[in-house]
């Protein structure tokens, strides 16, 4: 089977499950909850869940359910993040709070959050008792960790002394944790042993960290039409990305001044000037970090699979995509 | 054991469990999550969980955990509701979004939501497989139903033709569902059979519906210091309570005009005049509704327990309190 066909099949099944799960009497609420799913998205996390399950011999239908739970959880966090960051565009469409107002967007996120647990419950049915609790606990803790990461991200906006170590800690929580949980669930429903479960978590963590670093890079380098949202918003919102942290460390006094003038500014020219300097001083470094993480992820995949299963090929492709993507 | 002592013991145990569960590195987030717990609250839902478990012979420590899960879930909904309703005071203290801002309040609610599932998971450990899934599914569905109820409540603010049937449906979702889930969990962890589980749900539903009706009454009749929040806020926010619906149905044309002038108004005098008419036309009716529901709840308690166990006495007292309370 071709890789693209393999991915399409997963996305089709997960999207169908999502659609079936998001039906209810209170129409406005379900429309708001379903909005971002219809606007595209890469479904990366579901692809990770199902591909890990493929490599480790898990049941495919159970994998689709776990993948659906993760994607629903992810979209809940997107809806709430957009409110907090006051972002107006995502995936090229108005964000939920722009279209339905903040109260409905809060409720839509809450609905998806609960729905994710409901779907997870179905994914875990039939597993052994201690594995069921392990699944629930990892899923709940992931959400808590994501909230911690998002809090750190916001707190960092008001600080100019954020270190690279703090940044990595923050994106591990905010972004990588859900990739980690995705790979873990793929392994859990495959009845993998504890050693494999731990390796799956690490694989997801490396992949997710690389993904966020590249996300931060693309926020400075991609075209608005590819990004699906305005460029340079990280500079405008004074987000402490690895690029900014590295650039501030490397900058001369005058460069530093230009960067600081752009941070949190409303002036497009000041923002652009700051962005240019940040790019010059940090791009190579940020890419090399992401590539190192990708290599580490690849080593785990190779330990599991010597390039024979479609799931193994899929995971290697996803790791490559994480670093090489342009949007 | 005296009833008050029995209740104190439950509250002490649940509060200790809540405190132990809400510790974490990201300080601001955990402080915001813990804020409302420190400001009092009646812990009614935990008392229901533990008392039902007492009547039906459930394990007390498991009951404390289930009660903690419910109380944490309840406080998550309060934090998010206060953002949506733009309420500034609850339990006599500033609401979370007033004290920490909307973004942190959204995250604090999300953290508590996930934490509730984590604690529930511990409460269900050791039960039979199908009962574990029943517990998770009821808990997740309850949150979805609460979100539906809150959506209806908001949608009703823009309508003047809400019927009594619609109101009851809305408060069953918004408020009574979590009482229903509380009684259900008390029965579930007691390994009750399906018949008892259903009865527990109905008991909670009746009690919760009565509770919300009386809540709406107190919003018009209580003193601000007892209420812990401003009086007449339902009139100011144009909330379609049973009192308003009944009053609009019974009012003369001139009374109707005065009521409509008060709804959503910022003028304290107009609000007060509207409130007086609403009270005159609806208080007896609303109380008689609440009392009827309380009687129905009592019949279920008497079916379970002929006034011998402390849990049975506690439940009867709680039903009475629901209707007779003054704050």
TrEMBL record, chains A, B:
Alphabetized InterPro entries for the sequence: GGPP_synthase (IPR053504), Isoprenoid_synthase_dom_sf (IPR008949), Polyprenyl_synt (IPR000092), Polyprenyl_synt_CS (IPR033749)
Alphabetical UniProt keywords: Magnesium, Metal-binding, Transferase
A GO molecular function held by the record: prenyltransferase activity
Record-linked Pfam families: polyprenyl_synt
Superkingdom of origin: Archaea
Matches recorded under PROSITE patterns: POLYPRENYL_SYNTHASE_1 (PS00723), POLYPRENYL_SYNTHASE_2 (PS00444)
Signal peptide boundaries: none
GO biological process, alphabetically ordered: isoprenoid biosynthetic process
Known cofactor(s): Mg(2+)
Coiled coil feature spans: none
PANTHER family found in the cross-reference section: GERANYLGERANYL PYROPHOSPHATE SYNTHASE, SHORT CHAIN ISOPRENYL DIPHOSPHATE SYNTHASE
Protein family per UniProt: Belongs to the FPP/GGPP synthase family.
Protein name stated in the entry: Geranylgeranyl pyrophosphate synthase
Lineage start: Archaea, Thermoproteota, Thermoprotei, Sulfolobales, Sulfolobaceae
């Amino acid at each position: 089977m071709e890789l693209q066909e393999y991915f399409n099949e997963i996305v089709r099944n997960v999207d169908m499950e999502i659609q079936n799960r998001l039906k209810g009497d209170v129409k406005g609420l379900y429309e708001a909850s379903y909005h971002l799913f219809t606007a595209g998205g890469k479904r990366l996390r579901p692809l990770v869940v199902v591909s890990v399950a493929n490599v480790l011999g898990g049941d495919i239908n159970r994998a689709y359910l776990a993948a659906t739970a993760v994607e629903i959880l992810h979209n809940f966090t997107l809806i709430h993040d957009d409110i907090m960051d006051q972002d107006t565009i995502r995936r090229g469409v108005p964000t939920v709070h722009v279209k339905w107002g903040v109260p409905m967007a809060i409720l839509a996120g809450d609905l998806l959050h609960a729905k994710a647990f409901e779907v997870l419950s179905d994914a875990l049915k039939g597993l052994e008792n201690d594995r069921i609790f392990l699944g629930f606990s990892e899923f709940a803790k992931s959400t808590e960790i994501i909230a911690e990461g998002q809090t750190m991200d916001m707190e960092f906006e008001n600080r100019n002394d954020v270190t690279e170590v703090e940044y990595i800690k923050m994106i591990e929580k905010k972004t990588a944790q859900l990739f980690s949980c995705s790979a873990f669930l793929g392994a859990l429903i495959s009845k993998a042993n504890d050693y494999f479960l731990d390796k799956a978590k690490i694989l997801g963590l490396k992949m997710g960290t690389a993904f966020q670093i590249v996300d931060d890079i693309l926020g400075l380098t991609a075209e608005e039409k590819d990004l699906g949202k305005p460029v340079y918003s990280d500079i405008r919102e004074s987000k402490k990305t690895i690029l900014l942290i590295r650039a501030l460390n490397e900058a001369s006094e005058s460069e530093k001044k230009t960067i600081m003038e752009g941070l949190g500014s409303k002036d497009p020219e000041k923002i652009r000037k700051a962005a240019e300097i940040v790019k010059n001083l940090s791009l190579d470094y940020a890419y090399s970090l992401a590539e190192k993480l990708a290599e580490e992820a690849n080593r785990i995949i190779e330990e599991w699979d010597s390039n024979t299963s479609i799931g193994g090929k899929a995971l290697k492709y996803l790791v490559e995509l994480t670093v090489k993507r342009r949007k």
